[in-house]
Design a protein that fits this description.
heterodimer; A: alpha/beta; Pyruvate-ferredoxin Oxidoreductase, domain 3; six-stranded mixed beta sheet; globular; B: alpha/beta; Rossmann fold; 2 domains; eight-stranded mixed beta sheet; five-stranded mixed beta sheet
Chain lengths: 176, 389
Amino acid sequence: MRKECRIYGSGGQGVITLGHLIGSAAIQDNKEAVMTEEYSPYITGGWSRADLILSDRKIDHPLVVELDYLIALNQEGFDENIRSVKSDGIVFTDSGTVDWHNSYGKRVISMPARELAGKIGRPQSANIILFGLFSGTTGIPGRDSCLSAIASRFPKHKSGNAEAFDLGFNAGEKLE
Amino acid sequence: MKKFINKGQHFMNGNYACVEAAILAGCRFYGGYPITPSSEILEGMSARLPEVGGHFIEMEDEIGSIAAVLGASNAGLKAMTATSGPGFSLMQEGIGLAMITETPCVIVDEMRAGPSTGIPTRVSQGDVMQGRWGTHGDVETIAYAPNSVQEMFDLTIEAFNQSENYRQPVFIMADQVVGHMSEKIVINDPDEYHVTERITRNSHDDSMTVFDYSRDFTPMFLPGKGFHGMVDSLSHDERGYPSNSPEVGDMMMGHLLGKIRNNRDKIVRYEEFMLEDADIVIVAYGILSRVAERVVTDGRKNGLKIGMFRPVTLWPFPDHEIERLSENAERIVVAEINYGQYSHPVREYSRIPVEEIHFIPAALPSPEAMLRSVLKSPEPRAIKGGVSK
């Protein structure tokens, strides 16, 4: 198994953070993980992306070429990267902020993540909801590892983040 | 306050791995000036050194940084700095001073596209020759080229050890990708790592001169402890006194170069990948070796007799190994992210003509692009891969 994943959004949405969380959780599942990151020179509001490779075996070439998964946190992330997604790849996005209907036939799984995050009083946790959706759908990384990675990164917000994660995870798990 | 990082698995980037390794290797002084892509080393050291009783100073520039590092090392601390090409250029004079004064220290150069300030956030391997001949005069350098976060950790410890063993600056020639990418690394218990401690002489031991040119290693003296010592940038005799005599200069140079040449086999490190019956040998180092590894794996699946030779120490150059490989290979192809540097010494020692593949600095090529270049197929050498936005 070698899965290539890109997370793309605006600076401040927790793009790199989400990449780091997925990588940390994956290695707890005894997977190999590599993350490369790049962002525009602005601190908040510019584009930001994290590229991850998750694998059962040692990872040689460390950069993504064709995406198995795309997590698009904003419209630009969706529009810029949708064509790089493999024909059997999956796109995860926020249905409240991203118009994803022109998906070139790729499968799109979406939730109104930002809206839901606001409802539980954690507007900054939209990325965590999509993390849950990603984990629930793909099974990598497993739920326990994800929650443990989140808790060790944000020890003070363990329960709030777990609530956000499970919103996404439960939705993802129910999908075919 | 935590002296050492927890043992076990971590998901961290190359720069922070370098910081933790330096702390473990006993580094207690950092003098530096921030520069992409190495800035996280400076940032990490500024947080970690005070926790372990070390000293951190952000200097006014890289000339000041290397000077501070040499001062700290001569005062008895293991010291390091980290920079990128533009800073490495500024440090070359100080590196020469470290060579002639036999001052141990570690310098990380994270290569980015150059010359000059170039493209700060993008990968390159354009400083390879600077790591060999950057400073003036004759020197033998030691330079490592890590290709993963794990190696960034392991080779940082080794770099500190070798700088103490041979009393000279040691370079870690990493690159932007290795510095910035996050990966799984496994860190063992600190006791499981071999760390070469600084060997200093007894403060009143006058039986030895400052340097002893008949030996590869002379213990350093600590200033201010009563030993009558002298350290000078001019060619000097064994007492450390400057001398214009060609004979004295030759003796000193014989010692400086000899301590590395005599111990070449203890320093040189390399990795061989599927070379047993390889007709085509790719020579690749640093992050590009991981692209080459994929090319070799895929090529083998398609029946190509292909393998890779990876210098882990760029310098000293693995001369015997290249010579030996060239006796059995049909083709030797040097791949690098520059316009042709390491191909030169490979050509010097290879018994067959050496081919070069250059990848444009600022982008890591895809395995497909590298394979096309190796097979000389006619498609344009498009730089594809995850690098472009």
